[in-house]
Amino acid sequence: GAVEVSVRSPVACWFSAMLYCFGGSVLSSLMLAEPPVAFLAKGTNILLASSVWYLVFYCPQDIFYRCFAFLPLRLLVAGMKEVTRTWKITAGVAHADRAGGGLISNFEQLVRGVWKPETNELLKMSYPVKVTLIGAVLFSLQHSQYLPIARHNLVFLYTIFLVVSKVTMMLTRSAASPFAPFEAALGHMFFGLQKTPCKVKGEGATSSNGSSVCDRSSSEQHHDGVKKRQAKKTD
Question: Which stretches does UniProt call biased (Polar residues) (predicted)?
Protein backbone atom coordinates (compact mmCIF):
# COMPACT_ATOMS: atom_id res chain seq x y z
CA GLY A 1 0.00 0.00 0.00
CA ALA A 2 2.98 2.35 -0.13
CA VAL A 3 2.14 3.69 -3.61
CA GLU A 4 -1.42 4.53 -2.62
CA VAL A 5 -0.21 6.27 0.54
CA SER A 6 2.32 8.32 -1.46
CA VAL A 7 -0.54 9.76 -3.50
CA ARG A 8 -3.00 10.21 -0.64
CA SER A 9 -0.61 11.46 2.04
CA PRO A 10 3.02 12.25 1.13
CA VAL A 11 3.80 13.15 4.76
CA ALA A 12 2.71 9.73 6.03
CA CYS A 13 4.64 8.10 3.20
CA TRP A 14 7.81 10.03 4.11
CA PHE A 15 7.44 9.23 7.82
CA SER A 16 6.87 5.57 7.01
CA ALA A 17 10.00 5.51 4.84
CA MET A 18 12.11 7.14 7.56
CA LEU A 19 10.86 4.59 10.12
CA TYR A 20 11.84 1.79 7.79
CA CYS A 21 15.26 3.30 7.00
CA PHE A 22 16.15 4.17 10.60
CA GLY A 23 14.10 1.57 12.46
CA GLY A 24 17.24 -0.03 13.85
CA SER A 25 18.38 3.29 15.33
CA VAL A 26 14.99 3.89 16.95
CA LEU A 27 14.79 0.40 18.42
CA SER A 28 18.38 0.38 19.72
CA SER A 29 17.90 3.83 21.28
CA LEU A 30 14.82 2.61 23.16
CA MET A 31 16.70 -0.48 24.39
CA LEU A 32 19.71 1.60 25.49
CA ALA A 33 17.62 4.28 27.26
CA GLU A 34 18.55 6.92 24.70
CA PRO A 35 16.33 9.41 22.81
CA PRO A 36 14.50 7.46 20.06
CA VAL A 37 14.70 10.48 17.74
CA ALA A 38 18.48 10.75 18.01
CA PHE A 39 18.81 9.68 14.37
CA LEU A 40 17.27 13.00 13.34
CA ALA A 41 20.48 14.72 14.47
CA LYS A 42 22.30 13.17 11.52
CA GLY A 43 21.14 15.64 8.90
CA THR A 44 23.19 14.12 6.09
CA ASN A 45 21.58 10.69 6.50
CA ILE A 46 18.09 12.19 6.70
CA LEU A 47 18.72 14.28 3.59
CA LEU A 48 20.05 11.29 1.66
CA ALA A 49 17.16 9.02 2.70
CA SER A 50 14.62 11.74 1.92
CA SER A 51 16.15 12.36 -1.51
CA VAL A 52 15.99 8.66 -2.39
CA TRP A 53 12.41 8.49 -1.07
CA TYR A 54 11.33 11.42 -3.25
CA LEU A 55 13.01 10.07 -6.38
CA VAL A 56 11.51 6.60 -5.90
CA PHE A 57 7.94 7.83 -5.50
CA TYR A 58 7.77 11.10 -7.43
CA CYS A 59 10.39 11.02 -10.18
CA PRO A 60 8.72 11.72 -13.57
CA GLN A 61 8.02 8.57 -15.60
CA ASP A 62 9.58 6.47 -12.80
CA ILE A 63 12.98 7.04 -14.40
CA PHE A 64 14.86 6.62 -11.11
CA TYR A 65 13.18 3.30 -10.32
CA ARG A 66 13.59 2.01 -13.87
CA CYS A 67 17.31 2.74 -13.82
CA PHE A 68 17.85 0.81 -10.62
CA ALA A 69 15.61 -2.02 -11.85
CA PHE A 70 18.40 -2.75 -14.38
CA LEU A 71 19.92 -6.00 -13.08
CA PRO A 72 23.67 -5.09 -13.15
CA LEU A 73 22.95 -1.85 -11.30
CA ARG A 74 20.68 -3.66 -8.84
CA LEU A 75 23.47 -6.16 -8.09
CA LEU A 76 25.93 -3.31 -7.51
CA VAL A 77 23.59 -1.48 -5.14
CA ALA A 78 22.72 -4.73 -3.31
CA GLY A 79 26.41 -5.45 -2.79
CA MET A 80 26.97 -1.93 -1.46
CA LYS A 81 24.04 -2.37 0.91
CA GLU A 82 25.52 -5.56 2.35
CA VAL A 83 28.84 -3.78 2.90
CA THR A 84 27.08 -1.05 4.89
CA ARG A 85 25.31 -3.78 6.88
CA THR A 86 28.70 -4.93 8.18
CA TRP A 87 29.59 -1.35 9.19
CA LYS A 88 26.28 -0.96 11.02
CA ILE A 89 26.73 -4.22 12.93
CA THR A 90 30.27 -3.41 14.06
CA ALA A 91 29.28 0.13 15.07
CA GLY A 92 26.21 -1.19 16.90
CA VAL A 93 28.21 -3.75 18.86
CA ALA A 94 30.74 -1.10 19.91
CA HIS A 95 27.94 1.33 20.83
CA ALA A 96 26.06 -1.25 22.90
CA ASP A 97 29.27 -2.13 24.72
CA ARG A 98 29.65 1.55 25.70
CA ALA A 99 26.26 2.15 26.86
CA GLY A 100 16.75 -4.10 13.98
CA GLY A 101 14.75 -2.30 11.49
CA GLY A 102 12.34 -5.24 10.81
CA LEU A 103 11.10 -5.34 14.40
CA ILE A 104 9.61 -1.85 14.10
CA SER A 105 7.89 -2.63 10.79
CA ASN A 106 4.54 -3.23 12.51
CA PHE A 107 4.49 0.35 13.78
CA GLU A 108 5.49 1.53 10.32
CA GLN A 109 2.52 -0.41 8.93
CA LEU A 110 0.19 1.42 11.32
CA VAL A 111 1.41 4.72 9.89
CA ARG A 112 0.27 3.50 6.47
CA GLY A 113 -3.05 2.29 7.86
CA VAL A 114 -2.14 -1.39 7.54
CA TRP A 115 -2.09 -3.97 10.33
CA LYS A 116 -0.40 -7.30 9.66
CA PRO A 117 0.74 -8.81 12.96
CA GLU A 118 1.59 -12.08 11.23
CA THR A 119 4.54 -10.31 9.56
CA ASN A 120 6.23 -9.63 12.89
CA GLU A 121 9.93 -10.47 12.59
CA LEU A 122 9.86 -12.32 15.91
CA LEU A 123 7.29 -14.76 14.50
CA LYS A 124 8.91 -15.24 11.11
CA MET A 125 12.39 -13.81 10.74
CA SER A 126 13.43 -12.65 7.30
CA TYR A 127 16.85 -13.29 5.80
CA PRO A 128 18.22 -9.78 6.62
CA VAL A 129 17.22 -10.15 10.27
CA LYS A 130 18.77 -13.61 10.53
CA VAL A 131 22.04 -12.64 8.90
CA THR A 132 22.25 -9.46 10.98
CA LEU A 133 21.62 -11.42 14.18
CA ILE A 134 24.37 -13.90 13.28
CA GLY A 135 26.74 -11.03 12.51
CA ALA A 136 25.94 -9.33 15.81
CA VAL A 137 26.74 -12.54 17.71
CA LEU A 138 30.01 -13.07 15.83
CA PHE A 139 31.22 -9.49 16.29
CA SER A 140 30.14 -9.50 19.95
CA LEU A 141 32.20 -12.66 20.54
CA GLN A 142 35.16 -11.10 18.73
CA HIS A 143 34.79 -7.85 20.67
CA SER A 144 34.78 -9.80 23.94
CA GLN A 145 37.86 -11.76 22.74
CA TYR A 146 36.00 -15.08 22.81
CA LEU A 147 36.47 -15.49 19.05
CA PRO A 148 40.17 -15.87 18.14
CA ILE A 149 40.20 -13.82 14.93
CA ALA A 150 41.31 -10.33 14.07
CA ARG A 151 38.53 -7.78 13.65
CA HIS A 152 39.53 -6.78 10.11
CA ASN A 153 39.61 -10.44 9.04
CA LEU A 154 36.15 -11.05 10.46
CA VAL A 155 34.84 -7.91 8.74
CA PHE A 156 36.29 -9.07 5.42
CA LEU A 157 34.97 -12.64 5.63
CA TYR A 158 31.53 -11.60 6.85
CA THR A 159 31.19 -8.95 4.15
CA ILE A 160 32.19 -11.40 1.42
CA PHE A 161 29.61 -13.87 2.72
CA LEU A 162 26.88 -11.20 2.70
CA VAL A 163 27.65 -9.98 -0.81
CA VAL A 164 27.97 -13.47 -2.33
CA SER A 165 24.76 -14.70 -0.65
CA LYS A 166 22.74 -11.65 -1.69
CA VAL A 167 23.97 -11.63 -5.29
CA THR A 168 23.35 -15.38 -5.59
CA MET A 169 19.80 -15.03 -4.27
CA MET A 170 19.12 -12.20 -6.73
CA LEU A 171 20.55 -14.02 -9.74
CA THR A 172 18.72 -17.26 -8.95
CA ARG A 173 15.55 -15.36 -7.98
CA SER A 174 15.41 -17.47 -4.85
CA ALA A 175 13.64 -16.27 -1.72
CA ALA A 176 14.82 -19.26 0.31
CA SER A 177 17.27 -18.49 3.08
CA PRO A 178 20.68 -20.19 2.80
CA PHE A 179 20.31 -21.02 6.48
CA ALA A 180 17.18 -23.14 5.90
CA PRO A 181 18.90 -26.57 5.98
CA PHE A 182 20.78 -25.70 9.19
CA GLU A 183 17.62 -24.30 10.78
CA ALA A 184 15.67 -27.46 9.98
CA ALA A 185 18.41 -29.72 11.34
CA LEU A 186 18.95 -27.71 14.53
CA GLY A 187 15.22 -27.27 15.09
CA HIS A 188 14.65 -31.01 14.79
CA MET A 189 17.63 -31.76 17.03
CA PHE A 190 17.04 -29.31 19.89
CA PHE A 191 13.33 -28.47 19.75
CA GLY A 192 11.79 -31.58 18.18
CA LEU A 193 10.37 -29.66 15.22
CA GLN A 194 8.92 -32.04 12.67
CA LYS A 195 10.39 -31.90 9.18
CA THR A 196 7.23 -33.46 7.76
CA PRO A 197 4.12 -31.78 9.21
CA CYS A 198 1.90 -34.41 7.58
CA LYS A 199 2.87 -36.86 10.32
CA VAL A 200 0.92 -34.82 12.86
CA LYS A 201 -2.65 -36.08 13.11
CA GLY A 202 -5.26 -33.69 11.80
CA GLU A 203 -2.76 -31.24 10.27
CA GLY A 204 -2.34 -32.80 6.87
CA ALA A 205 -3.78 -31.12 3.81
CA THR A 206 -7.16 -32.44 2.77
CA SER A 207 -8.37 -33.23 -0.70
CA SER A 208 -11.73 -32.37 -2.23
CA ASN A 209 -13.37 -35.50 -0.79
CA GLY A 210 -12.17 -34.66 2.73
CA SER A 211 -9.41 -37.29 2.96
CA SER A 212 -5.92 -36.36 4.06
CA VAL A 213 -3.22 -36.07 1.42
CA CYS A 214 -0.90 -38.14 3.60
CA ASP A 215 -3.59 -40.80 4.11
CA ARG A 216 -4.27 -40.88 0.41
CA SER A 217 -0.59 -41.27 -0.45
CA SER A 218 -0.29 -44.09 2.11
CA SER A 219 -3.31 -45.90 0.67
CA GLU A 220 -1.91 -45.50 -2.83
CA GLN A 221 1.39 -47.02 -1.71
CA HIS A 222 -0.48 -49.93 -0.07
CA HIS A 223 -2.50 -50.49 -3.24
CA ASP A 224 0.68 -50.51 -5.34
CA GLY A 225 2.22 -53.04 -2.95
CA VAL A 226 -0.80 -55.35 -3.27
CA LYS A 227 -0.62 -55.16 -7.07
CA LYS A 228 3.08 -56.04 -7.03
CA ARG A 229 2.49 -59.07 -4.76
CA GLN A 230 -0.31 -60.28 -7.01
CA ALA A 231 1.95 -59.95 -10.04
CA LYS A 232 4.65 -62.03 -8.32
CA LYS A 233 2.11 -64.75 -7.48
CA THR A 234 0.96 -64.83 -11.10
CA ASP A 235 4.55 -65.26 -12.27
Answer: 205-216
